[in-house]
Design goal:
- The chain has 526 residues and is α/β, with parallel strands linked by helices.
- The protein has three domains: 137 residues, no CATH class; 183 residues, Rossmann fold (3-Layer(aba) Sandwich), CATH 3.40.50.11190; 160 residues, Glycogen Phosphorylase B (Rossmann fold), CATH 3.40.50.2000.
- 45% of the residues lie in helices and 10% in strands.
- The chain has 19 helices and 13 strands.
- An eight-stranded mixed β-sheet has the order 3-2-1-4-5-6-8-7, sandwiched between helices.
- Helix 10 links the parallel strand 2 and strand 3.
Length: 526
């Protein structure tokens, strides 16, 4: 018996064990491991049909089945099924709820072409309702008003800054939280940073049938003092404990700090939600959407939303006020200047650059075909794709040899900006930080409107694919026009994105959150 026959026999055996024990996560996970080695379309379809017939579609077996089939097929209906089953599972398990919530929004982010599509998918998965269910459970269990005592709040001196997960300074959401701490400290506030590490836990690898989980991150605090000061105050939850125990422990530690205001950075944090009944809440999302949190004020990069008061996620959370605050990062320190000669490129060649971690998922379809047409029309152009494992995306396999160069992730990827002429952001929700970094260095960038990258570009964001590629052709044909665009974007970065200018706007938002909290506390309760 050859290896393939043996593996297929093993898969058949695991499938039967799974049907017999559909709540045993390790069975679903073993199927995933075998399929990663042996899957092909006919086998996947056969297995999908068999599981639909032989595993119940509700309760925990149905949840495991749905999350497994999402991974197997990639079709959106299965994750949607899982989200609605999640709302009905009893007994209620906050660890499973938050694992599904955090894993799912990151799963959807891979495929979302823009902000509206991302928001719609999260709503289809019932994630706002799941977050609201978590909040109710947290409030009923912890009763935060008994831990963090009510007191008159007339000014802001101390801010508790909360992130769902903290790892190290190379992790963009961690860096984003640290940078917000620095801006808060510039306003004279005392800042303490808290995280319950909500994407980790004792059982988090077993909650989903897809075997999706975050690999144990490297927790390194080196460099944090630049943002938190030499007497840095930060507390993280002990991931050996359940989420509820971590939230309880951290709320007690937060009570010792006794903040005047809470600021949350991220789409959702149960720890931040726990404090909403007792303190002013300011929130900042990492992907240009309003966070899935009850908040008094949220910080938006969309100028047209400034001062609007609305429930951004329907009835799941109370209305909050948007405050236009586009500042997101400092101009990066580029320590290595990369010369084109080091890449074997002539000085007269035009270089396009894309930084992307999931190139196979991001570089697809009509957009990839249009990029191939650009490369064919400009044979001297070289496109550098940096990130992930450095493997050529399937959609670009037909490119002329040498025109597309895929480079694996490296910690100093910014060095490639120094020898690039145009930064190319694929049609996706993310990529905003890389777009802003290009702008700060005077490298003109292309990104679609309605995305993180588009928000960074403001009026320079593309409104159509036709305009996107017309602009790219213009920049490749006319160096002066390209250079002028880069300088204009660099000026826009300094005026609207540079965190060096963020403190005054952030102070206004903090004071507005305090005012709205006072109104909220004075309102009669029904």
């Amino acid at each position: 018996m050859d290896v393939k026959q043996e593996e297929l026999l093993l898969l058949d055996d695991v499938v039967r064990r799974t049907v017999a024990n559909p709540t045993a996560s390790h069975c679903w996970h073993q199927m995933i491991q075998i399929l990663r080695r042996q899957a092909h379309p006919a086998l996947s379809l056969q297995l999908e049909q068999f599981l639909l017939l032989n595993v119940e579609g509700n309760d925990l077996p149905g949840f495991y089945r749905a999350t497994f089939l999402d991974m197997l097929t990639g079709r959106p209906e299965y994750l949607q099924q899982a989200g609605h089953i999640m709302l009905t599972l009893q007994p209620l398990d906050t660890d499973r709820l938050i694992t599904f919530l955090q894993n799912s929004w990151q799963r959807v982010l891979l495929d979302a072409a823009g902000r509206d599509a991302f928001r719609q998918r999260l709503q289809e998965l019932a994630l706002p309702q799941i977050a609201a269910l978590l909040n109710q459970c947290i409030w009923q269990t912890l009763q935060p008003a008994k831990i963090l005592k009510s007191r008159p709040l007339t000014e802001i001196r101390k801010v508790a800054l909360i992130a769902p997960l903290l790892t190290n300074i190379k992790h963009p959401p961690t860096l984003m939280a640290l940078q917000q701490a620095d801006s808060l400290r510039q306003n004279g506030y005392e800042v303490a940073l808290f995280s319950a590490q909500e994407m980790l836990g004792p059982d988090f690898k077993h909650f989903l049938g897809s075997h999706s989980f975050m690999s144990d991150p490297e927790f390194v605090t080196a460099g944090w003092e630049r943002y938190l000061g030499q007497r840095a105050q930060f507390v993280t939850g002990d991931v050996r404990f359940s989420m509820m125990q971590r939230w309880k422990s951290l709320v007690h530690q937060m009570a010792q700090f006794d903040p005047d205001l809470v600021m949350s950075v991220g789409l959702y944090s149960g720890l931040a939600a726990a404090l909403y009944p007792v303190r002013p809440m300011l929130s900042l999302g990492i992907n240009s959407l309003s966070p899935m949190l009850p908040a008094d004020v949220w910080l938006t990069a969309q100028q047209d939303l400034h001062a609007t008061v609305a429930a951004q996620w329907g009835t799941a959370f109370p209305a909050s006020q948007a405050h236009y605050h586009p500042y997101r990062l400092h101009k990066p320190d580029v320590t290595v200047q990369l010369e084109r000669e080091a890449l074997g490129l002539a000085k007269n060649q035009s270089v396009l650059l894309t930084l992307v971690s999931e190139s196979e998922a991001r570089i697809t379809g009509e957009w990839a075909a249009s990029m191939l047409a650009i490369l064919a029309a400009f044979p001297d152009v070289v496109w550098l794709i940096v990130g992930g494992n450095g493997v050529m995306p399937t959609a670009l396999q037909s490119a002329k040899t040498g025109q597309v160069r895929c480079i694996a992730f490296c910690s100093d990827a910014l060095k490639y900006m120094t020898c690039s002429d145009v930064y190319i952001n694929p049609p996706m929700l993310g990529g905003g930080f890389a777009v802003a970094e290009a702008m700060s260095l005077g490298v003109p960038a292309l990104s679609m409107q309605g995305s993180d990258g588009g928000d960074k570009l403001g009026r320079a964001a593309m409104t159509s694919m036709a305009g996107y590629f017309q602009t790219l052709q213009l920049w490749l044909n006319q160096h002066a026009v390209r250079q002028s665009a880069g300088l204009a974007m660099q000026d826009h970065f300094y005026q609207h994105l540079d965190l060096a200018h963020a403190a005054p706007s952030l102070k206004i938002a903090c004071e507005l959150a305090l005012q709205r909290f006072q109104i909220r506390m004075a309102a009669p309760t029904s």
